[in-house]
Amino acid sequence: MDDFLIYLRLGFDHITDPSGYDHILFVIALCAVYTLQQWRQVLILVTAFTIGHSITLALATLQLITYKTDLIELLIPITILITAITNFFFQEPKTRSNTAKPSHQSWRYGLAMAFGLIHGMGFSNYLRSLLGREANIIKPLLAFNIGLEVGQLIIVSIVLALAYLILNVIQSSRLRWTLIISGIVAGMALSLIINNEYLGELMQ
């Protein structure tokens, strides 16, 4: 199999791996306040996250920036918790078409991009362990990032489809859906933070 396809598959498997569910939780938290009809806004939001993690994934993989791995592993669940908590206070300004004006949500795009920078460093830990001493890392880096994006979009599609089922078929309230999903994500993120070994070392 071509190396490009191998690294694309590795990127896809990494973000969709249930055993490393922290990135999945973040994407779910990002999408929890939106419906299927708002897919354009979700696409912009996810693109902001992608831009953020692409920057630091590239810089860290090329060893242009350095950081403490243990700190990043602690910061990732913190970004998930913060994102989930913001969902509890999210109030969408309405227009005649019942959709929010993007200008009112610019802070969410900025937050997604900023947190993407942290997640990108987390992605790079895994990618660098795969690359080893490979001479040309640009092609694997690109393939891995595309794989991440494909997996990310699949997760988004599942969340929005589930939201459509709950809101339109079962006819549950949108507020209840947002609170339940965000609450579950926040609880899981908090558990990751509490059980983080680096946090334990800092508190000693």
UniProtKB/TrEMBL annotation:
<dbReference type="InterPro" id="IPR032809">
    <property type="entry name" value="Put_HupE_UreJ"/>
</dbReference>
<keyword id="KW-0472">Membrane</keyword>
<keyword id="KW-1133">Transmembrane helix</keyword>
<feature type="transmembrane region" description="Helical">
    <location>
        <begin position="43"/>
        <end position="65"/>
    </location>
</feature>
<keyword id="KW-0812">Transmembrane</keyword>
<dbReference type="Pfam" id="PF13795">
    <property type="entry name" value="HupE_UreJ_2"/>
</dbReference>
<feature type="transmembrane region" description="Helical">
    <location>
        <begin position="20"/>
        <end position="36"/>
    </location>
</feature>
<feature type="transmembrane region" description="Helical">
    <location>
        <begin position="71"/>
        <end position="90"/>
    </location>
</feature>
<protein>
    <submittedName>
        <fullName>HupE/UreJ family protein</fullName>
    </submittedName>
</protein>
<feature type="transmembrane region" description="Helical">
    <location>
        <begin position="111"/>
        <end position="130"/>
    </location>
</feature>
<feature type="transmembrane region" description="Helical">
    <location>
        <begin position="177"/>
        <end position="194"/>
    </location>
</feature>
<feature type="transmembrane region" description="Helical">
    <location>
        <begin position="150"/>
        <end position="170"/>
    </location>
</feature>
